[in-house]
Design goal:
Elements (H helix, E strand, L loop, with lengths): L6 E7 L2 E5 L4 H5 L5 E7 L6 E6 L4 H10 L5 E7 L8 H4 L11 E2 L11 E4 L5 H7 L6 E4 L9 H8 L6 H6 L1 E2 L2 H9 L3 E3 L3 H15 L8 E7 L14 H4 L4 E2 L7 H13 L5 E7 L6 E8 L6 H11 L6 E3 L17 E7 L5 E8 L3 H15 L16
The chain binds NADPH dihydro-nicotinamide-adenine-dinucleotide phosphate and N-acetyl-L-glutamyl 5-phosphate.
NADPH dihydro-nicotinamide-adenine-dinucleotide phosphate (NDP) binds next to helix 2 and helix 12.
Length: 390
C-alpha cells in the first residue's frame, strides 16, 4: 500500500463491492455516483493541520473524537478560554491517554502551520475572532454568526449589529446534502444550527418540488441538554432539567430567521413557520415533528416517495420504512439523520419526523463533512462510524 495514503476503503458501486487502495484521486476521477465507506484508516504522512477553536466545549470535543480517526487531518492547535493552559486530559478525563496539544488562549495561538480551523465558540465572540484570522485559512464556523445573510435580521435576532459583515456575505451555508457544490469551493462555511438541520433536510426538497404549501408549517423540536453547551448555567443544572420538560424561546427562538431564510430560498417565496423548541432530559439527541399542508393534488405518499428518491444515494440521511418512527437512539453518536412521513388525521396534512444527534449531524459531524469537501476529500471521510446503541 502507498504509505502516503494508508487508507482502506470499500466502494459500493452499482451493487458491487470491491476493495480499493488508492483514494481521493480515484474518487475524483469517477463520474459514477458511489458510496464510499472507510473501514479502517491511519494518518497519511503529511496530514492537513487543523485547529479547533473552543476545543474545551462539547462540539470541540466531538470534533476531536472524529478527527482522531481521520486519515487526512491532524489536530495541531486547540484553544479554550477559562481552561486555556490546561492539558486536554485534565479538561476531558476520557482523553487522558490521547496525545493532543495543550489548550491555549486564542490570543496566544500560532496559526503559522495551521491549514484549516473549526470555530466552536459562542456566537457574538466568533465574528471578532474569525475577522482576525489569516485569510489563507479554510474555516468552518459552528456558531450562528455567519448563517444569516441579511444584516438587519442578524441585528434583530441577535440583539447587536454584526461586526464582520464582509465575511457574513462571503460565508456559504453548510447544509451539506443541499449545498455541497458551493461548499466545495468555499473558504468560510457557516455550519447550520442543530434545530435547522433537522427541519431543513426534509423541508427543502419538498418546497423545491412544490409538494407542500408555504403556510401552516408547524414545528415542535426537542433537544438534548448538550445543545446548550458545557459552560455552567443555572437553567441547565441537573435539578432543573432532569425528570421534566419545558419549551423555551416560544415564537422568538433565534433559529426562526435561519429556518425561514433557507425555506424561503427553497420555495423562491417568503415562508414563515411556527417553531417551538423544547428541552428534553437527555444528554444528546434532537427530534423535530413538522406538521405540513399538502399542495393541491399531492398525497402523503408523494412526499414520502420524493424524499426517498432525493436521499437515496446519501450515506447519512435515511427515509425509514412506512410506519417506523425515527428515534434519537438510532442516530446517537453518528452523523445520521432519520426521517419519516406520516398521514395526519386532519385531511390534507402530513406529519414529518426527523432525528439527529445534535452534536454530530447538528454540529461537529456536519462541520467535518463540510471541511472534507472544502479540502477535496470524500465528504464522509472519518464519519462512517456506526451509531452508539443502546
Ligand atoms: N452544542 C450543540 O449541540 C451545538 C452548538 N452549536 C454552536 O457551536 C458553538 C460551540 O458550542 P458548544 O461546543 O456547545 O459550546 P461550549 O459552551 O460547550 O464551548 C464553548 C467553547 O468556547 C470557548 N469560549 C467561550 N467563550 C470564549 C471567548 N470569549 N473567547 C474564546 N473562547 C471562548 C470555551 O472555552 P472554556 O471552556 O475555556 O470556557 C469552550 O471551549 C456555539 O456557537 C453553539 O451555539 C451549534 C450546533 C449545535
Ligand atoms: C438546548 C439549547 O439551548 N440549544 C441551543 C441551540 C444550539 C445551537 O444549535 O445553537 P447555535 O445556533 O448557536 O449553533 C439554543 O436553543 O440556543
Amino acid at each position: 500500500m502507498n504509505s502516503m495514503v494508508a487508507l482502506r476503503t470499500v466502494f459500493m458501486d452499482g451493487g458491487c463491492f470491491s476493495k480499493v487502495q488508492d483514494k481521493p484521486k480515484a474518487l475524483k476521477a469517477s463520474k459514477k455516483p458511489m458510496r464510499v465507506v472507510v473501514v479502517s484508516a491511519q494518518k497519511v504522512d503529511k496530514p492537513i493541520k487543523v485547529g479547533i477553536l473552543g476545543a474545551s466545549g462539547y462540539t470541540g470535543v466531538e470534533l476531536i473524537r472524529f478527527i482522531a480517526n481521520h486519515p487526512y487531518f491532524d489536530i495541531s492547535l486547540m484553544t479554550a478560554d477559562r481552561k486555556a493552559g490546561q492539558s486536554i486530559g485534565s479538561v476531558f478525563p476520557h482523553l487522558i491517554t490521547h496525545n493532543l496539544p495543550d489548550l491555549v488562549a486564542v490570543k496566544d495561538a500560532d496559526f503559522s502551520s495551521v491549514d484549516a480551523v473549526f470555530c466552536c465558540l459562542p456566537h457574538g465572540t466568533t465574528q471578532e475572532i474569525i475577522k482576525g484570522l489569516p485569510t489563507r485559512l479554510k474555516i468552518v464556523d459552528l456558531s450562528a454568526d455567519f448563517r444569516l445573510r441579511d444584516i438587519n435580521d442578524y441585528a434583530e435576532w441577535y440583539g447587536q449589529p454584526h461586526k464582520a459583515t464582509d465575511l457574513q456575505q462571503e460565508a456559504v451555508y453548510g447544509l451539506t446534502e443541499i449545498f455541497r457544490n458551493k461548499i466545495q469551493s468555499a473558504r468560510l462555511v457557516a455550519n447550520p444550527g442543530c434545530y435547522p438541520t433537522t427541519i431543513l433536510l426534509p423541508l427543502v426538497p419538498l418546497l423545491k418540488a412544490s409538494l407542500i404549501t408555504l403556510q401552516n408549517i408547524v414545528i415542535v423540536s426537542n433537544s438534548g441538554v448538550s445543545g446548550a453547551g458545557r459552560s455552567a448555567k443555572e437553567a441547565n443544572l441537573y435539578t432543573e432539567v432532569s425528570e421534566g420538560i419545558f419549551s423555551y424561546g416560544i415564537t422568538r427562538h433565534r433559529h426562526v430567521p435561519e429556518i425561514e431564510q433557507e425555506l424561503s430560498d427553497a420555495a423562491n417565496s417568503r415562508v414563515t413557520v411556527s417553531f417551538t423548541p423544547t428541552l428534553m432530559p437527555m444528554s444528546r439527541g434532537m427530534q423535530s415533528t413538522i406538521n405540513v399542508e399538502l399542495a393541491p393534488g399531492v398525497s402523503v405518499e408523494d412526499l414520502k416517495q420524493h424524499l426517498t428518491k432525493f436521499f437515496e444515494k446519501e450515506e447519512f440521511v435515511a427515509v425509514l420504512p412506512d410506519g417506523q418512527a425515527p428515534h434519537t437512539k438510532y442516530v446517537q453518536g453518528s452523523n445520521g439523520c432519520h426521517i419519516n412521513v406520516f398521514p395526519d388525521r386532519i385531511p390534507g396534512r402530513a406529519i414529518i419526523i426527523s432525528v439527529i444527534d445534535n452534536l454530530v449531524k447538528g454540529a461537529s459531524g456536519q462541520a467535518l463533512q463540510n471541511l472534507n469537501l472544502m479540502m477535496g476529500y470524500p465528504e464522509n471521510t472519518g464519519l462512517s462510524c456506526m451509531p452508539l446503541f443502546p
